[in-house]
Amino acid sequence: MASDSIIKSIDLSEKKHFTLDGIPYLNGKVAVVQEGNFGIGYIARREICQKKRPR
Predict the structure, then answer these.
(1) Burial class, 16, CB count within 10 angstroms (exposed 0-12 / middle 13-18 / buried 19+)
(2) What is the pLDDT of residues 10-32, one digit of tens each?
(3) 8 lies in some domain
(4) How far apart are CA 11 and CA 32, in angstroms?
(5) Domain encompassing residue 55
(6) HEC sequence for 1-55
(7) Which end of the chain has fewer beta carbons closer than 10 Å to its terminal beta carbon, N or C?
């Protein structure tokens, strides 16, 4: 079956790590964050708003 080959091709051994440094400079851009007052949306909104221009 085609779906079996797709599932087998996923490599779960590589763990991807997200860091806040990976957020690009977004000055002048519009970001829509749902649920920006609670949980992960709150953290995302806070970090995006605090991002400063790289020097």
Answers:
(1) exposed
(2) 666 666 777 777 777 878 888 88
(3) no
(4) 31
(5) 14-55
(6) CHHHHHHHCCCCCCCCCCCHHHCCCCCCCCCCCCCCCCHHHHHHHHHHHHCCCCC
(7) C
